[in-house]
Design a protein that fits this description.
Length: 546
């Protein structure tokens, strides 16, 4: 293999070489039976249609577009919970949030994740980039470069300040993995990008690399129809009666036409930078001679609302929030099976059992998702889902809890904490602007979908949203010391609750437990659990930066 330590990106033409090298190659029977390598690429906060292959008329993603043209694109991919932590945990475990009890794995449940299953089957496994799942750590992998923290510039103040961008960091680590991996074993590598997620604490929000600065400068970003104020007023009243985090972020990013153009162009620049990174990794696979047996899966962890309905970010059961991009490139597919699009519902919980199937491993019974490999071959199993249950809960109602039934034709949303329902006929109102829940003409539809929601909840199982606590990570095992102080055991370590006196400036999820094991918010104060074993006070001193 060529040396893979250089800190430069290839041009997008390299991906064309990657595809051309084996885009139409057919495999012999014995080759098809070989365990494939798996490259799993996860984008952060990427709209399902903010790519070239997704239909965006402006954003440039040539490497992903070529993969899609030679693979299978899933038009109806979605997440069961639209937030980083829970969505990524569902990808790991193949389970809904209510079954997991939070965005977490434990030493007892880790064995039923797809990385554990593939490693047990002989794979060399790596994780690079974003974590956001409690309990996911280096111990579960052979190669580990996971992190939480800044989304864009990891060190220094931009390139001028000697910084390294997360896109560059993730690419460098991927090249290091491919150079280091044992050549006699199949491998899986998850590259969990932290873009194009906003840098929530920076006023600019989206901070691309210099290579993309000139992109889109002379172009105007199309404005969604539902940015008009009337659509904000059509949302349930509780959105306007109390502080709403989604509305607060809309104000920060999109409340003027000029701000909207600047923010979205930088969002697109981050997407193009990620695409450039993907081209580099694909070229490394080709140069290393493993591209003809490496399945590439690209997915977003949730969708994003840039101004639609007067909102920003994710969390809700609206189409703009729960649908994600998904493509699978499998070089073993016959030529006639490439360049296809699939309209079946495919969910993030399907990732885990699908990877098990690709590796020839029986999926653990704990996985609730479905193996989607038949869809890759144009075959739809008779019992394939026609709808699914969406569920969301945060630690407070600044992001209201909801559960929903989602199908191609209908959407039923139940706002759990507000005793409010919404009903949308997606065939005639795909933008979800006319709530039919109070329309007598649709009383039968409302009753049918109410019942279906309850049925799906029983099928999924686990806790009700009302019973889920300490979201997004869930309840930890509580104990008490001799003084009766509240303590927990997490990841085999003992922690005591301490308080960071700094008041929070917002309720952004990124201010919470992402970087503080066991921390949570009480009355606007960041609380945490100080380790009684290693006395890691520095974790909580970092609270002052907020």
């Amino acid at each position: 293999m060529k040396a893979l330590t250089r800190r430069v990106f290839i041009t997008t033409a390299s991906a064309a070489v990657f595809i051309a090298a084996f885009g139409n190659r057919l495999f012999a029977e014995e080759k098809s039976a070989k365990q494939p390598n798996i490259l799993f690429l996860v984008a952060d906060d990427l709209r399902w249609n903010s790519t070239g292959f997704g239909g965006d008329p402006l954003v440039q993603t040539p490497n992903l577009d070529r993969l899609g043209a030679a693979g299978v694109i899933f038009n109806r991919a979605a997440v069961t919970t639209s937030i980083c932590m829970a969505s990524r945990a569902s990808m790991l475990t193949g389970q809904w949030l209510s079954r997991m009890g939070g965005a977490r794995v434990t030493p007892q449940t880790w064995k039923d994740t797809w990385p554990a299953q593939l490693r047990a089957a002989g794979y060399y496994g790596g994780h690079i980039g974003k974590i956001h799942v409690s309990g996911q750590s280096a111990s579960g992998y052979d190669f580990w470069a996971g992190r939480n923290g800044p989304y864009h510039w990891l060190k220094g103040n931009g390139a001028e300040g000697g910084g390294i961008h997360s896109i560059q960091k993730d690419t460098d680590e991927a090249l290091r993995f491919l150079d280091k991996r044992p050549k006699d074993k199949p491998f899986f590598l998850q590259v969990a990008y932290t873009v194009p997620h906003a840098e929530d604490h920076d006023p600019k929000q989206y901070l691309p690399m210099p290579q993309e600065d000139a992109l889109y400068a002379a172009r105007a970003v199309p404005v969604p129809e539902t940015v008009a104020p009337e659509y904000w007023l059509r949302l349930p009243p509780f959105f306007r009666e109390a502080r709403n985090e989604s509305r607060a972020r809309w104000t920060k990013r999109f409340d003027t036409p000029e701000k909207y153009q600047e923010m979205v162009k930088n969002y697109y620049r981050l997407i193009s930078g990620m695409d450039r990174s993907i081209g580099t990794i694909l070229e490394a696979l080709r140069a290393g001679g493993v591209s003809d047996n490496t399945v590439v899966v690209f997915i977003g962890d949730k969708w994003l609302l840039p101004r639609e309905h007067g909102l920003a970010d994710k969390w809700y059961a609206y189409e703009e929030s729960l649908r994600v991009p998904l493509l699978i490139y499998d070089p073993r597919l016959p030529a006639e099976g490439r360049g296809k699009r699939c309209d079946n519902w495919v969910l993030n919980v399907d990732i885990a059992p699908t990877f098990c199937a690709m590796a020839g491993v029986k999926a653990p019974a704990a996985m609730q998702g479905c193996d989607i490999t038949p869809l890759l071959h144009g075959q739809t199993p008779a019992a394939w889902r026609t709808d699914f249950l969406y569920q969301f809960k945060w630690y407070s109602e600044v992001i209201p809890a909801s559960e929903a039934v989602c199908s191609k034709d209908w959407k039923y949303i139940r706002w759990v904490g507000h005793r409010t329902e919404e009903l949308f006929d997606l065939r005639n109102n795909p933008l979800e602007t006319r709530d039919l829940s109070k329309d007598p003409a649709h009383a039968a539809d409302l009753a049918r979908l109410r019942a279906r929601c309850d049925e799906l909840k029983r099928e999924v199982g686990g806790s009700t949203l009302q019973d889920l606590t300490n979201m997004p990570y869930g309840v930890k095992e509580k104990i008490s010391d001799a003084t009766g102080e509240s303590q927990v055991v997490s990841n085999g370590r003992l922690w005591r609750r301490v308080e960071c006196s700094t008041r929070l400036k917002s309720t952004s999820d990124d201010l919470l437990v992402d970087n503080y094991e066991g921390s949570y918010v009480v009355d606007g104060v960041l609380m945490g659990y100080k380790s009684l074993i290693s006395n890691e006070e520095q974790i909580f001193k970092r609270c002052a930066r907020f």
